[in-house]
Fold this protein.
Amino acid sequence: MTARLSVLFSVMTIVALVGCGGGQQSSDPRPGAGAVAGDVTVFAAASLTESFTRIGEDFEAANPGLRVSFSFAGSSALATQINQGAPADVFASASPANMTTVIDAGNGDGNPSVFIRNQLVIAVPDGNPDGVNGLADLNQPDVKVALCAEQVPCGAAARKALDAAGVALTPVTLERDVKAALSKVRLGEVDAALVYRTDARAADDDVDGIEFPESAGATNDYPIVVVKNAPNRPAARAFVDHVRSSPGQSVLTAAGFQAP
Amino acid sequence: MSPRDAVAARPDRPAPPPRPRRTGPVPVALLLPATLGLLFLVLPLAGLLIRTPWSTLPQRLTEPGVLTALRLSVQAATLATLLCLVLGVPLAWLLARVDFPGRRLVRALVTVPLVLPPVVGGVALLLVFGRRGIVGGWLDSTFGLTLPFTTTGVVLAEAFVAMPFLVIAVEGALRGADVRYEEAAATLGAGRWTTFTHVTLPLVAPGIAAGAVLCWARALGEFGATITFAGNFPGRTQTMPLAVYLALETDLEAAIVLSLVLLTVSVVILVSLRDRWLSSP
């Protein structure tokens, strides 16, 4: 028993030492050396979950010895966490407003850059039973519509698009985020919702995404920045470069995002 | 002798328990964790008060949305509590007084909403009472009634989450109550219904009141099941907790003000109810 415990203890010590070594290595910036190593922590908007996970795998494959971990959540929650000192290396926000919160608090390293845009579509149940072709079709008494609340980015964009189309729509609900709005369509509780094209595409089996012209004037910019107190700044910069490179961009556009 | 007389003839209430006697100093081993526990519960409230924007408080409080959400919250929580009383007190009686097979399982099932994350509860409600749900689909096709996105939906979601609090409190009171009064009523010819209304209910009234207060407080603070099942629309389904959540997205101070309003109203109502119903002999 004691022997087993001591084995366990020495294993833990080794793990801890290796861990320290990685940390030390990563806190030692070596510009000029092409490879980056250690851990890099990316705080990213929930709508980036699928594509950033994929990009992270590619980035790890290109940089042996590097581990990418993600924290996906609503941009405003992530911005609050970063401003409260969460150990993030990179912040990718679904809206400029939440990025501004971080930059204004002095927690950005350099200026953020917009790396993609997202556009709204009308999500309707698979097969489009109500024959929705545009925003005007939503403004009928028997068509129930879910929008995002205006406090979250997809709701602000929806408001802009509806105003541009001159459609005075009364939704049945103002959902807390885009995934919640989408799930109301998937559950059949509403007949349509305004969601991002990427979300509609990710739920391809249950919903159809109907494009509409007014969404062009209501795109959402996604900015990305290296966090000022990034524990692993070289790897953070390399990750941002990778996201903006053509392999990174092609993963994003395949998911339905648009290049900036 | 009528059952009512049986109640009237019951012996005087047992004397209240004697006041705790002071037998030496309070042990530090109890005082220290007790103080830490109190601080743990109270400090977050202090945090809210410290960050409250007192200077802009009056103008923020008079914004029209605040009162609407508050009124809706109080109304929905009260209706949900009434619904819980109508359904929950008989359920508690059944669990406490009737020996039926599977009683332990039923008791466990009653507490499911306590352990279920409220968001999951909301999804489950949608699957049953939603437009495509087992019950909801029938309501929609037969009566043209839809529950999601309505104030009724808010009441249902709150009742679902809050009812276990009432059932557990009332069942506890029933188990603690002296069954001899009920037996005496039965001996004197009262049926189970008469015994329930004339003996049992008055006997456990304090327990029911305590359960109703807990139930109301839980319903008032309900967030996850409400926003999932009833959605969020000002004036119809947007209760205070939902308004707080959305305010947090953009405006921390507004969220704090709304939280403070909810907190004040609930504390005032709970304290006044407690004085009236629970502490009086």
